[in-house]
Design goal:
The chain has 96 residues and is mostly helical. Helices cover 36% and strands 0% of the residues.
Length: 96
Amino acid sequence: MMKGWSPCKREALSAGAVSCTSDEFNSAVTSAGFPAPTSAQYNGFNGHTANGGFSTKRELAMFLAEILWESGGLKYKSEISPPAGAYVTPQVHNID
């Protein structure tokens, strides 16, 4: 679990929805070793997760951890293409 994140403190926005404060978001991102997020990144995260069906802070923290991993710490918005030839199609052999 990310240091500074409080999965026990539930803040209901609507039926079953939870959110995080700006301080919690900032702490979670920086504790994971990434630069401090902008207010726009916080607002985007909170705005898109407010009705995302998360029922606990723990679920929200796991989702944020996945986003941080996939985006290089909120740095990339699209998939990073691997260098040419990085992936090779496996040879398929027919056995008759």
